[in-house]
Amino acid sequence: MAEVLKLSKLEAERSNRNETPTASNQRLITEMAGDDTDHGCCGIFLLGISMFFIIMFFPITIWACIKVVQEYERAVIFRLGRLAKGGAKGPGIFFIIPCTDEYRKVDLRTVSFDVPPQEILTKDSVTISVDAVVYYRVQDATMSIANVENADGATRLLAQTTLRNMLGTKSLSEVLTDREYISAGMQNTLDEATDPWGIKVERVEIKDVRLPVQLQRAMAAEAEAAREARAKVIAAEGEMNASRKLKEAADVMSESPNAMQLRYLQTLTSISAEKNSTIIFPLPIDMINTALKK
């Protein structure tokens, strides 16, 4: 009851000082674990008995008192059920009192896990299956042990619900085109929610978006029709430009009879080069034109 009243008093003081949740949680852990070492008469008696046996059976008992944690680990010590003074220990060697101390190791390395595929109904009523990957690490070992029972499991469940809630407000086109924006939004939401647990979410990536087969066929047909339409428009524009150029060439050649004759001879040359055939034309063009004029 005294602990509950103490926590309520601390929360009231935080609200009066307008502290942020992160600072408040850190201060709560510090005030609960740091300076308050009053274990009561029974606790002091047990500590005294433990110290007596440690001294009496020294140096055999020293092996039960010395513990080692790696560079990437921290040890959170509970002494008679309360957080020991000084916060998390490590890396390296630290000491515990047998029978009264209990410690838990916390890994500070970055951990990644896959969010299972989630069936999500988008804003435009399309059912899609989306999976993602989340990268996080423990930022505060004490808070990850004292504030949540299973930090890893809680983060996994929160990532699934956050993915559903985030994509449920987006349309299909936004899900397919704005993956980076959605990933950044998920990261900020998860990081804010897991901050009281001492968890830092470093990165969130959407791996795959799977659409129904019928929708895939409809989108493929739509894309094919759009490509055909663009091809027809491009062909029509090409024909229009070619006709304009032909008209300009005809106007230039009509102004110069010699150009028309050269073009005629060039055409005959190209025809004779393509096929081995004999071409007979009765009279030169100049003689025909002279006769027509007379």
UniProtKB/TrEMBL annotation:
Regions crossing the membrane: 44-66
GO CC annotations on file: plasma membrane
Compartment(s) where it occurs, according to its Swiss-Prot or TrEMBL record: Membrane
Organism annotation: Phallusia mammillata
Domain (Band) ranges: 64-223
Official protein name in the record: Erythrocyte band 7 integral membrane protein
Pfam families: Band_7
InterPro entries listed in its UniProt record: Band-7_stomatin-like, Band_7, Band_7/SPFH_dom_sf, Band_7/stomatin-like_CS, Stomatin_HflK_fam
Keywords from the named record: Membrane, Transmembrane, Transmembrane helix
